Structure to design on (227 residues):
């Protein structure tokens, strides 16, 4: 029975990795679609989001079944409960990639943002993909050094997010209201994607160390949980 239980926990981890991989692909495609105004690629992201949603639901059902049947305690309980929360964040990251793609579809054949912001959003997309890719590796290997890498990537995304607001609020910004709204929304989507990556990374660190850092604290990867 114990062997079956541990196999179930391994299944939870593998499913988290699988969802993270799909989220990485989704944001990679969405960012490329955003940069190139590629509506076909945007449609792929939108259509594929249902797969991420279904896998997240299946993972949640597995976690709930483990709670009901195995009644885990201590670290095993933390793993299952944290998996439910990580699943929700990963599912939300998939939704955010879909939102970026929806902006592309809505404005096609025009670009979503003016040319002067193209470089900023290209970089934000690259950073989001890097965060998702690093998060996937963190979930696969539990190498806690990767958690701090994700935090560093998120800091860069936040800085670019601030720069977008500075540009759209500056006196030199002479674009229509729709462009202002699109730029603001797109920037917020990228920023929130990074925040969710940090949130999942913090939960992985918590499982390994027993230490729960707040969002504005450095992630402590030095301690190791006793259980």
């Amino acid at each position: 029975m114990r062997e079956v239980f541990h196999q179930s926990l391994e299944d939870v981890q593998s499913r988290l990795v699988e969802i993270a991989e799909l989220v990485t692909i989704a944001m990679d495609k969405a960012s490329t679609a955003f940069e190139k105004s590629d509506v076909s690629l945007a449609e792929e992201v939108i259509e594929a989001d249902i797969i991420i949603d279904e896998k997240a639901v299946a993972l949640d059902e597995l976690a709930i079944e483990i709670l009901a049947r195995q009644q885990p305690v201590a670290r095993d309980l933390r793993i299952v409960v944290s998996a439910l929360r990580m699943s929700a964040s990963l599912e939300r990251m998939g939704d955010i990639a879909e939102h970026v793609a929806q902006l592309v579809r809505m404005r096609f054949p025009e670009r979503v943002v003016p040319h002067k912001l193209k470089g900023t959003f290209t970089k934000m997309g690259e950073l989001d993909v890097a965060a998702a890719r690093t998060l996937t590796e963190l979930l696969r290997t539990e190498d806690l050094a990767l958690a701090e890498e994700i935090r560093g990537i998120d800091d860069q995304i936040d800085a670019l997010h601030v720069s977008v607001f500075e540009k759209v609020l500056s006196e030199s910004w002479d674009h229509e209201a729709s462009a202002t709204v699109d730029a603001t929304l797109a920037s917020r989507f990228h920023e929130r994607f990074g925040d969710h990556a940090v949130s999942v990374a913090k939960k992985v660190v918590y499982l390994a160390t027993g230490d729960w850092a707040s969002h504005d604290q450095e992630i402590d990867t030095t301690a190791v949980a006793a259980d």
Summary: The two ends are 21 Å apart (CA to CA).
